[in-house]
């Protein structure tokens, strides 16, 4: 890979990194994080700058381009794809900050940011800054980050501030990673190489200019990417990892099936009719879910690049496609793991890792089963709080 940041052809850069990402999957699982040298290579490839506004030297890619790049990384290594997705999407904060502050943080071409939206922290209003304490779970890729962000409820005069809807006033606090303590809590079944452990801060001062609300604030940037729904963009990232991981499972099973023979059989798995039919069904399911996902991306993007806001029904349609891709990806990986038989059980098999990673991906809240309930209400025309759509 080149030694300097390449601001073009991110998909080609991702594909160029794929062989090394694939070869080091076991290493990542063992150390339970993205190694620093791989993170640096991914940064130079532009994978953490895909959402960063062009005004700060970022790529500001289209949602389709972002999904394609994350898909390519996750096809090689789902944990690396997940880290790319988190690093890219957390840079969305740059579009909501005052430009001068955002420039100070996000203009470094090799910066890696991370963090957690969930309001697990507390921010006390002290005038020109917030006094912040909190501990956040799921800090994917935090070990390689220069800046972190954490969602916080906002407090003033001893009381929690609330929005007109009655919901807590929650804001993302952006602070140097050096002010946080990383905790070794990432002992899990899947996505083991993401380093998604807890991080915490205690009584730090965060300037108000370094805080944003993706639900209340309006972006300063005017590009279509920043009119795109914030939670839809995060959902796209999660589903892109699922998309690539399932593709990797299909490729791994095809390689296994052309060489493996069951005990007492002269035929390879690929020569057996049952395997042929099941593999074809999995391939068709993947192609269909991918086509559905990209169709909804393109329809939403067409609205985002036009006049007016994106209606809740369109945002819901995008979220359904993301959830469908994530769940379908897990179904494919489970089926292929079953078809692989005893060979899929060994740690050397990609199929067992793809199976584990796929089911870890399904646990993210933006593509969890509750998404069906949220979007179902909208389909029925029932009153729905669209803030998280």
UniProtKB/TrEMBL annotation:
Keywords: Hydrolase, Oxidoreductase. One of its GO terms (molecular function) is acyl-CoA dehydrogenase activity. Residues 236-367 form the Acyl-CoA dehydrogenase C-terminal domain. GO terms for biological process: fatty acid beta-oxidation using acyl-CoA dehydrogenase. GO terms for cellular component: cytoplasm. Residues 17-92 form the Acyl-CoA dehydrogenase/oxidase N-terminal domain. The keyword Oxidoreductase applies. InterPro entries: Acyl-CoA_dehydrogenase, Acyl-CoA_DH_C, Acyl-CoA_Oxase/DH_mid-dom_sf, AcylCo_DH-like_C, AcylCoA_DH/ox_N, AcylCoA_DH/ox_N_sf, AcylCoA_DH/oxidase_NM_dom_sf. Belongs to the HpaH/HsaA monooxygenase family. This is Putative hydrolase NrgC. The lineage of its organism: Bacteria, Pseudomonadati, Pseudomonadota, Alphaproteobacteria, Hyphomonadales.
């Amino acid at each position: 890979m080149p030694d300097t940041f390449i601001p073009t052809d991110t998909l080609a850069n991702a594909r160029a990194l794929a062989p090394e990402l694939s070869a080091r999957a076991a290493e990542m699982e063992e150390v339970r994080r993205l190694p620093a040298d791989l993170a640096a290579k991914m940064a130079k490839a532009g994978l953490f700058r895909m959402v960063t506004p062009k005004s700060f030297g970022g790529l500001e890619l289209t949602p389709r381009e972002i999904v394609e790049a994350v898909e390519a990384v996750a096809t090689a290594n789902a944990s690396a794809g997940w880290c790319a997705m988190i690093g890219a999407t957390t840079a969305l904060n740059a579009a909501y900050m005052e430009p001068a502050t955002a420039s100070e943080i996000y203009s470094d071409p090799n910066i890696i940011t991370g963090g957690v939206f969930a309001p697990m922290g507390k921010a006390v209003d002290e005038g020109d800054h917030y006094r912040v304490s909190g501990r956040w779970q799921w800090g994917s890729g935090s070990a390689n980050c220069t800046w972190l962000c954490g969602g916080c409820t906002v407090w003033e005069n001893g009381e929690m501030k609330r929005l007109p809807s009655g919901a807590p006033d929650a804001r993302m606090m952006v602070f140097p990673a050096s002010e946080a303590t990383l905790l070794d809590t990432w002992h899990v079944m899947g996505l083991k190489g993401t380093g998604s452990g807890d991080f915490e801060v205690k009584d730090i001062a965060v300037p108000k200019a370094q805080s944003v609300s993706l639900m209340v604030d309006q972006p300063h940037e005017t590009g279509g990417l920043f009119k795109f729904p914030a939670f839809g963009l995060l959902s796209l990232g999660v589903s892109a990892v699922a998309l690539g991981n399932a593709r990797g499972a299909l490729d791994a099973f095809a390689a296994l099936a052309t060489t493996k023979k069951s005990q007492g059989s002269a035929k390879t798995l690929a020569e057996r009719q049952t395997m042929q039919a099941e593999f074809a069904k999995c391939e068709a399911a993947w192609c269909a879910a991918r086509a559905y996902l990209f169709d909804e991306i393109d329809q939403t993007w067409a609205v985002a690049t036009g006049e007016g806001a994106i209606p809740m029904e369109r945002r819901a349609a995008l979220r359904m496609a993301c959830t469908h891709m994530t769940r379908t990806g897990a179904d494919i990986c489970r089926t292929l793991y079953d078809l692989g038989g005893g060979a899929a059980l060994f740690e050397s098999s990609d199929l067992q890792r793809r199976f584990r990673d796929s089911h870890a991906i399904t646990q993210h809240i933006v593509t969890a089963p509750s998404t069906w309930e949220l979007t179902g209400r909208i389909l029925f025309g029932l009153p729905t709080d669209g803030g998280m759509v």
